[in-house]
Structures are given as C-alpha cells and as structure tokens.
From TrEMBL:
<dbReference type="Pfam" id="PF00884">
    <property type="entry name" value="Sulfatase"/>
</dbReference>
<dbReference type="InterPro" id="IPR017850">
    <property type="entry name" value="Alkaline_phosphatase_core_sf"/>
</dbReference>
<feature type="domain" description="Sulfatase N-terminal">
    <location>
        <begin position="8"/>
        <end position="328"/>
    </location>
</feature>
<keyword id="KW-0106">Calcium</keyword>
<dbReference type="InterPro" id="IPR050738">
    <property type="entry name" value="Sulfatase"/>
</dbReference>
<keyword id="KW-0479">Metal-binding</keyword>
<protein>
    <submittedName>
        <fullName>Arylsulfatase A</fullName>
    </submittedName>
</protein>
<comment type="similarity">
    <text>Belongs to the sulfatase family.</text>
</comment>
<dbReference type="InterPro" id="IPR000917">
    <property type="entry name" value="Sulfatase_N"/>
</dbReference>
<dbReference type="GO" id="GO:0004065">
    <property type="term" value="F:arylsulfatase activity"/>
</dbReference>
<keyword id="KW-0732">Signal</keyword>
<dbReference type="GO" id="GO:0046872">
    <property type="term" value="F:metal ion binding"/>
</dbReference>
<keyword id="KW-0378">Hydrolase</keyword>
C-alpha cells in the first residue's frame, strides 16, 4: 500500500442510476423509505451539490475513464449485445495512466465500455477485473418469455487478468442479480487485502450494480425496510458501501486513501423502479437537471475538510484529470482532454471556485443543452423521456438557482447570457474539429 501522501490510494465507487434525491444526505433516505446511514456519514467528509454527468451509463463511464466528452470517443449510448461498442484502442484510460505511474489497478462491477477481446477492463489498464461487461437488465433475459439463446447472446458474469483472455464465470440471471453486489464487495475486499501488504499505491474502481433495473435486493435485504424492492435495494447499497469503507479501515489504509462516491446518471424512470432527483426535474436520457446532477462525495483525510459542501459546477470528465493530479501524474497531452483539475476546489470548497464555468450536454450526437454557471440553455426540449418537442426555434433559458424545476423560460429578459454560452459552444465545436481522435471512430471494431 502507498504510505506516500503525494501518491494516495484511490477507491472510486460508482452507483448505477442513483438519483440526486435518493440518499439521506441529499434529502432522501428515510423519506424514500430507506435510511442510508453509511453513505450519509461518508458525506460529512465532503459533498458536492452540482456534480454533473452524461445522459446514461455508457457516455458517463467513457467520460470518467477518458476525461473526454462522449461526442469525442463515440461512446454515445447503451447498445444491445453483439453490436459495436466500447472505447477505441486509441483512447487512453484512467487506469492505463495510473498504472504507468506505478499504481496497481482493479475493476469489480459493471464495465459497459467493451464486450469483445481487446476491450474488456483487463485489456484497458486494469490488472484484474470481475463483473458484467454490459448492463444489468440483461439478467432478465433467461426468464423472459420466448427468450432464444440461439439468436440472442446469453449474459455472463466474467473475469479477467491482464495478458490473459477474459472468461465467463456464470450466466447472469435474476438469481445472480440479487447476489452480484455481494459478490463484487467480496472481490474488492480480497483485492484490497492483497494490496495493503504490497508497496505500490492502488486504484480500485468499484461500479455497483444497484440501483439499475431490475432493482432487486439480496435475499438478506428482502423486506428489510418494509417498503418494497427499491427501498430494500437502497438499504443494501448503503450496506455494501459501508462494507468497503470498513475494510479500508480494517486493513489500515484509511489515512492515505481517497474515497470517491458518485452515480453514473440520473434516476430510473421505469416503474416500478422509478427513482427521484429530489428538487430537480427529469430522469436520465433527458437534458433536465435531474439527469445531469447526481450525488458526489469525497473523503480525503487531511486534504478535504469535513462538514463543508459546495454548489460549484464540476463535470464527470474532471474526475479523470483530478485523480491523475492526486496521484502526482499528468493527463495525456496528445489529444484534447475536457476534464479540469479540481483538486483546489476539493481542498478548499468554502473559498475556492470551480475552474469550470460550464459544459455542452449531448444526447447521442445531438447537442441538447449548454450549462453555464447557474444558467441552462435548452436547444431541444424533452422534459420527460420519449416526450421531445424537437429542436427549439427559440431556445429555453432557465436559472437553476431560482428555478430548479426548469419551469419558467426567461431568455427574453436575459439575452446577454447567450454571449458566454454561445462562446462556450463555438470553442467546443472548434476543438471537436481539431480533435485527431475523431478520425479513429471509423475503426471502432
């Protein structure tokens, strides 16, 4: 384990489809039918209110792993098994950068950035991995009426080690759906124990499966809350995070380990597993604030002050650059990197401002909205999934401080805001045109 404070260990826990309003520390918890005491206590170590992600699983995970907007990498949306998906070999990932800096790396959880040889986690910078290559709704396949394994791929839990082929462990069905987060925690605990006795710093990426649909709890948590599967799953998720935190303490690495907790996108919109974004409108697959904003918690003993929060704008791409800065290494210089180093904000959230003023928000390859400071300009209006009114001739402008639900268009009274927003758009589009990686998208397979 690393004892060098300039090279801290890093543990990144990513929840799946966890809305801003689900956790107690964000106004949910018991109000959502499931107290979340472990994550709430972690939030006292450092909490952001304005952490922003992409529209669904694949785009966010690609942004996290590369520090680049998905419009650059081609990881635009979740696609079915058997179709081209994942990061091109040209993209450089966070674990690849950290491994070059001497870090041990592991991935236990949901990958969703490549499901063919050459694109599994163990091919993209992780020393070892265990989990699912795509997404968890596939656990429903084998129990679906009419499922035919001759024309549709069976979903598997898999594992792999760098330099060796990744292999199938077992079919991923509804029984394993209930067990998988327990399995993932056991894998992470074992790996952390092994690394605690080694000399190198480590990076653990632990993408949980909860709360992605079908949101089914482990049998130990069925009826734990008395409020149904979704609340029981929230209680399990909180417990699993607590298990990892306790193990970090037990193996004696807490003081030099950064723990990051976040979600990949806004809440579930499919009943009966529908989630909430709290005060914000919308779910994932929209450009509403409930899609962009998700929980983000950081614990960095001796560096991030306790009981301080911030409403400064941070984007998921920033985690790539910030983690590399924490590890004492630099981001790649041969391609545009959208992530910004936010270490100073995390260390002094009461006084520091974010180094980011805004960002463009794409769904697939369409620019839907642009966020700048506390303003949001919608170019396409889709307040709910599959309810788009198409491109707006006159865009809608909202101030998210005064109007968190995005209900009152005030562009006519604030046309001055178009100047910085359109400047941001123009500069980003110019960087796309100059991006050498975009030519690589034709070689995705």
């Amino acid at each position: 384990m690393s004892k060098d404070p300039s090279r801290p260990n890093i543990v990144l826990i990513l929840a799946d489809n966890l809305g801003w309003g689900e956790l107690g520390c964000y106004g949910g918890g018991a109000l959502r039918g499931a107290p979340t005491p472990r994550i709430d206590h972690l939030a006292t170590e450092g909490l952001l209110h304005n952490f922003n992600v992409e529209s669904d699983c694949v785009p966010t995970r690609s942004a996290l792993m590369t520090g680049r907007h998905p419009i650059r990498t081609g990881c635009l949306q979740s696609v079915p098994a058997g179709f081209p998906q994942g990061l091109t070999p040209w993209e450089k990932t966070l674990p690849e950068c950290l491994r070059e800096a001497g870090y041990a790396t592991a991935h236990h959880g949901k990958w969703h950035l490549g499901d063919i040889p050459g694109r599994y986690p163990s091919d993209r910078g992780f020393d070892e991995w265990f989990g699912i290559p795509r997404t968890t709704d596939e656990s429903q396949f084998t129990s679906a009426l009419g499922f035919d394994a001759e024309v549709a791929e069976l979903p598997y839990i898999m594992q792999g080690i760098t330099g060796q082929p990744s292999t199938d462990v077992c079919v991923y069905d509804l029984e394993k759906r209930r067990l998988i987060d327990e399995m993932l925690v056991e894998k992470s605990k074992d790996w952390l124990s092994r690394k605690a006795s080694a000399g190198a710093p480590f990076f653990l990426y632990h993408p949980l499966v909860h709360l992605h649909f079908p949101t089914l709890p482990h049998l130990d948590f069925v009826k734990a809350t008395g409020n149904g599967d979704f609340s029981d799953s929230m209680a399990e998720m909180d417990f699993r995070v607590g298990q990892i935190l306790d193990h970090i303490d037990d193996i004696g690495v807490r003081d030099n380990t950064v723990v990051l907790f976040a979600s990949d996108n806004g809440p579930e919109f499919r009943p009966p597993y529908r989630g909430t974004a709290g005060p914000w409108s919308g779910t994932y697959h929209t450009a509403m604030e409930g899609s962009l904003r998700v929980p983000f918690i950081i614990r960095w003993p001796g560096n991030v002050p306790q009981n301080v929060t911030s409403n400064e704008v941070v984007h998921v791409t920033d985690i790539f650059t910030t983690v590399l800065a924490m590890a004492g290494t630099t981001k790649p210089d041969d391609r545009p990197i959208d992530g910004i180093n936010q270490v100073s904000l995390f260390q002094s959230p009461a006084v520091e401002k974010s180094k980011r003023e805004g960002f463009p928000f794409y769904i697939k390859d369409e620019l839907r909205a642009i966020k700048w400071r506390h303003w949001k300009l919608h170019l396409v209006w889709e307040p709910k999934v599959n309810q788009s009114s198409g491109k707006l001739e006159s865009p809608y402008l909202f101030n998210t401080l005064r109007d968190p639900k995005e209900e009152s268009d005030i562009l006519a009274y604030n046309t001055w805001v178009l100047q910085p927003i359109m400047k941001l758009r123009t500069e980003f589009q110019k960087s796309l045109a100059d991006d050498p990686a975009r030519a690589q998208l034709g070689t995705r397979m």
